[in-house]
Amino acid sequence: MKKNGIVFSILILITSCNSKESKTVMNTLLQSDWQLEKINGELLSDSMQIPMLQIDLAKMQLSGNTGCNSYTGSISELGEKDIVLENIATTLKMCVEGNYEDQYVNLMNQVKIYEVNDSSLTFKNSAEKVILEFKKYSGTKKNMRIHDIWSAVRVEGNPINRMVTVPRIEFNTTDMKFYGNDGCNEYFGTISKLSEEKITLGNVGSTRKMCPEMEFPQRYINALKNIDNYKFTDDNILVFFNKDEEEVLAFMKVD
Can you give the residue ranges of the DUF306 domain (predicted)? Predict the structure, then answer.
């Protein structure tokens, strides 16, 4: 009897360990960068900035962009299916263009259940209704050639007059952000989509300093908002084009 009791205890321990191990494997699938695909079952519009979500299981934290502001939060509870997100806070930037921020943040605060696999993440509310659907971000963010600091050489195909302050831009593909100077003001924003050829920038925010010459900085910002795809020339110039394949901006790498 004693021997059988020992065997039974060992079986319980093995079962417990296997259960814990499978749960850990399932949870690790959450550790990724996710791009929102649907809200309440409806596909998002490509004309608006798409919210992003990054989950860090080591810190039990989440972060991302709402389509307007950056946000952070914490994971207070996490099981094989249950999840509780708390303390979701956003920056307070005012965004002129339409976005999903209010709806997205409201639904993130309702998340109670999740389903995850190698390519998708689904959040449900307490009534088990699907409210948010994400797909794994597939952009090769790290070690991309565009990840660098660049100085403008052409705007709308025209060489820059060296009498003006030359605009610059820095692309941080790890954090999916960009920032720079338009020749007068500092500007910043998020990268919504990125591949080796295509790029979509989110809303552009900036400081509001007035300079003696404002026409050129405004032309630069307008051109920046129109970029759709890019390529590198043989002489290492980074050239951006609009959807009609017209050149809008060109940059050279800052050494």
Answer: 28-135, 148-251
41-44, Cβ contacts within 8 angstroms, sequence gap of 24 or more: 41/130, 41/133, 44/100
Q: Whole-model pTM?
A: 0.52
Give the 3-state secondary structure of residue 142.
coil
Query: DSSP assignment, residue 50?
Result: P
Mean pLDDT of the 24-47 span: 83
Residue with tokens 């020749």, as numbered in its chain:
183
CATH class of 149-253: mainly beta
Report the Cα–Cα distance between both ends of the chain, in Å, rounded.
77
Residue ranges covered by each domain of the chain: 29-136, 149-253
Please say whether the beta carbons of 27 and 56 come within 8 A.
no
Q: What does the angle CA 250 – CA 252 – CA 253 come to, to the nearest 5 degrees?
A: 140
Closest CA to 252 of 244, 241, 243, 240: 240
| Dihedral sign of CA atoms 34, 38, 43, 46 in order | negative
3-state helix, strand, coil in the chain (%, to 5): 20, 40, 40
- CATH fold of 29-136: Lipocalin (2.40.128)
